[in-house]
Amino acid sequence: MLRETNLMHEQDWAEKTLSILREKQFEACERRLSNTLQFGLFSPLATNAHAQQLFEQSFFAAEAADDTLVTVESLRADVRRLLPHEVHYLSSAENALMEQLLLAGGRLTSKNWEEIPAAEALQRRLWCSFQSVGETWTLDLAQELRDPLIKAFTKEKHSSARTRTFRYDVTIHGLLYITGFLPAKQPREMFRRDVLKSKADWADVIADRYMRASFEYITDDNRQIVLLHPALADPYRLLWTLGGRVNAAITLTEESLLGGMNGVLAEEVALNEAMQNELYGNLRPEWRASEAADDLRFLVKQNVSYRDLEEVMASMLCIRPTDGMRQALKNLYNNTPRWIAMSANLLH
What we know:
The protein has helices spanning about 20-35, 50-55, 60-65, 70-85, 90-105, 115-125, 145-155, 155-180, 185-195, 200-215, 235-240, 255-260, 270-280, 290-300, 305-315, 325-335, 340-345; strands at about 105-110, 130-135, 135-140, 180-185, 215-220, 225-230. The protein is mostly helical and about 350 residues long. About 55% of the residues lie in helices and about 10% in strands. It starts with 17 loop residues before the first helix and ends with a helix. The protein has three domains: about 35-155, no CATH class; about 155-255 and about 345; about 265-340.
């Protein structure tokens, strides 16, 4: 999912925690979807007058030349051409949402806004249309695509492809936990080699779509994708600190990668538990101790100053900070690996 630039310029670190960033990302995703057509590419309502708008709101726009002109029929042909390959390599969230859609007969109504990024990705593949009213949203699958999707989901090939995709997904999310960001070049090559196992022309397109659907990302000046950890509030700040170099080679130890896959490094476990224990029972009603401790840890990983950390922690509390809280925060600050250091090691 695209990380919108305007999310990165907030000055107050209390507004740049993982919890806040996630909420803002959902809002941005809903806003983009609200600007899409209320019907899909395969609807009888879709005419050539709508073709360019459908194209610009799809993955195809990032894959084609800037001056590309399209028709409804050419877009439909492109969707049909890619679908037999693409269906096996959806993001985990898309795959789960598509299973719900197929079980529901092609129309799903929900109030679960955490599924909105997956809904947007399916809409950008031009498989679905999206509508929302109040707290409820509806996703409609093109009827013409329903039978091909059902057949594809029941093939043995689909099961083995999903297993490879899951292993890859866990690995890359683990790497993002360790480094904060990853230029997409090497992950894309890994996806083609280890997951797609293909050198066909469609492989690059499907690999890029998987990156865009599965991870938060920005694009650099050359329109290349840079994958982000969801908690990385200002990726450009980190890249600037590293001198703008993003041509990384992935070389990490098995132990650190396992910690990344688990969502916490071995050396962070005791620090995080101590912070969580100090916060427990002393937070404002909207906070949970585990969530608050995670937010503080991720700010430390971004090299936020200790003074700013104290201010963020104070904003979470319903009491004045205790000596125990300050000590736990100090230990967290002094001993948590920074993304700047890990990313520099990765780049070298």
